[in-house]
């Protein structure tokens, strides 16, 4: 069936404000089309009174692709909330699909069942493909070396890389036919790099996914497919990690309003190898924690990384300066990992050393490190109807040092900074 054509465009007015849109048909069929805004809209009035500075045709393809591209562009600049754009939504019109996940899963299962032929392709040809697999910049040299060593052994034994079958798909790479007119590598970055590094390897097994199978997919859909396919090399397995799926699901909720625990997300995670327990513990709960953190954190602020070199040095220096006083013993601990035993493991050697030197200790100082604003709130103010954690922790420490009658002080390191 012949698919309807469509195109995506951008209109720039003389005030430099922009409008992004899509239209069914071709630019030649609609040379004077500038959008479907209502006559009382700001865009329509400025279009009439200020005039057009330029109109750019950004994309031409099928109707579905054009409206998906519109949505992608609108989301990239958050046009709905961007003062330099007239668009009132980031939706991409009625033709923009919020998710193609069922088609993505169907296509993934087709690749698993070898619905498409595998052919041996010259590695030099594969090297010219556009690399669209997830995390293409994160090439792991150790992984590449591991695969290369195995390739070397196999080529020495068989004279070529073993053909891939349902039982053995170790070296297979997946590509999208005619992606950007040259082909796109959606899975197999490490395998291809290993082949390029191995002089004995001339050809690599390639499964080409026909254009008709993925032509209506958005970048989000392709990203999902890449996550499911990545990787298939059994010599050095390193599936798409939790962080990838967490960010993918957060993006779907933000952009398409798809619920975190939706059946769609559960099905995708199931196909990615997660059990229901793992989905809950590794993915859904972490996302919900992130949402709670965003809700509690003041606008324009973000948490300070406790792992940065400068922050570690600052915190160590602060505690060290406290301990320079002969009358103070001090330590620091993350609020999320606080136990009295951990605190005492640090304080008791300091106490013993200072008493041995004849000093009189009068104060105990605990510097608290808060990894997130949620930790800070739970510690100082209480969370979900619970009292502040600080109260009971301070009470217990005071009881432990009751005989010595030390003053117990808890201090907080700064944990928030302006967003960059």
Polypeptide structure, described:
The protein is an alpha/beta fold. The protein folds into three domains: about 5-80; about 100-240, no CATH class; about 310-420, no CATH class. It is about 40% helix and about 20% strand. The protein has 15 helices and 13 strands. It has helices at about 40-50, 65-75, 100-110, 125, 140-160, 190-195, 210-215, 220-230, 240-255, 265-270, 275-295, 310-325, 340-355, 375-380, 390-400; strands at about 5-15, 20-25, 50-60, 120, 130, 175, 185, 205-210, 300-305, 330-335, 365-370, 405-410, 415-420. The strands form four sheets. The protein has a five-stranded mixed β-sheet, with helices on both faces. The protein has a three-stranded antiparallel β-sheet with strand order 2-1-3. The longest helix has 21 residues, at about 275-295. The radius of gyration is 29 Å and the shape is extended. Mean pLDDT is about 85; it is low at about 230-235.
Overview in brief:
The protein is 42% helix and 18% strand. The chain has 420 residues and is α/β, with parallel strands linked by helices.
How is this fold's topology laid out?
Layout: E1 5-13, E2 18-24, H1 42-49, E3 52-62, H2 63-77, H3 101-112, E4 118-122, H4 123-126, E5 130-131, H5 141-158, E6 173-176, E7 184-187, H6 189-197, E8 203-209, H7 211-214, H8 219-229, H9 242-256, H10 263-271, H11 276-296, E9 301-303, H12 309-323, E10 328-334, H13 340-356, E11 363-369, H14 373-380, H15 389-400, E12 407-412, E13 416-418
Parallel strand pairs: 5-7, 6-8, 10-11, 11-12
Antiparallel strand pairs: 1-2, 1-3, 4-8, 6-7, 9-13
């Amino acid at each position: 069936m012949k698919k309807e054509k469509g195109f995506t465009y951008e209109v720039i007015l003389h005030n430099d404000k922009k409008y992004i849109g899509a239209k069914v048909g071709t630019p030649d069929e609609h040379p004077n089309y500038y959008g479907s805004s209502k006559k009382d809209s700001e865009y329509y009035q400025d279009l009439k009174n200020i005039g057009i500075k330029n109109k750019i045709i950004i994309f031409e393809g099928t109707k579905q692709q054009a409206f998906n591209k519109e949505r992608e562009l609108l989301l990239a600049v958050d046009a709905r909330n961007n003062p330099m754009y007239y668009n009132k939504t980031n939706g991409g019109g009625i033709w923009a699909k919020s998710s193609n996940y069922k088609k993505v899963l169907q296509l993934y299962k087709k690749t698993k069942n070898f619905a498409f032929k595998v052919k041996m392709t010259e590695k030099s040809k594969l090297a010219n493909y556009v690399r669209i697999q997830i995390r293409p910049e994160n090439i792991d040299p150790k992984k590449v070396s591991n695969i290369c060593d195995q390739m070397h052994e196999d080529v020495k034994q068989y004279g070529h890389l073993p053909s891939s079958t349902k039982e053995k798909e170790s070296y297979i790479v997946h590509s999208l036919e005619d992606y950007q007119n040259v082909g796109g590598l959606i899975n197999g970055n490490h395998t291809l790099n290993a082949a390029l590094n191995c002089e004995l390897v001339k050809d690599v097994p390639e499964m080409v996914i026909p254009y008709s199978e993925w032509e209506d997919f958005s970048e989000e859909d392709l990203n999902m497919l890449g996550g499911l396919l990545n990787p298939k090399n059994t010599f050095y397995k390193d599936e798409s990690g939790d962080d990838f799926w967490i960010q993918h699901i957060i993006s779907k909720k933000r952009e398409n309003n798809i619920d975190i625990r939706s059946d769609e997300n559960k099905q995708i995670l199931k196909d990615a190898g997660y059990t229901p327990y793992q989905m809950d513990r590794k993915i859904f709960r972490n996302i919900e924690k992130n949402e709670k953190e965003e809700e509690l954190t003041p606008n324009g602020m973000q948490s300070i990384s406790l792992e940065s070199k400068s922050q570690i040095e600052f915190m160590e220096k602060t505690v060290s300066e406290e301990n320079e006083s002969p009358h103070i013993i001090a330590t620091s601990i993350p609020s999320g990992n606080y136990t009295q035993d951990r605190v005492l493991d640090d304080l008791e050697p300091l106490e013993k050393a200072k008493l041995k030197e004849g000093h009189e200790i009068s104060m105990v100082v605990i510097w608290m490190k808060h990894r997130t604003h949620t930790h800070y709130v739970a510690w100082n103010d209480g969370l979900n109807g619970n009292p502040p954690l600080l109260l009971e922790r301070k009470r217990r420490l005071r009881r432990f040092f009751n005989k010595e009658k030390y003053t117990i002080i808890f201090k907080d390191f700064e944990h928030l900074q302006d967003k960059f």
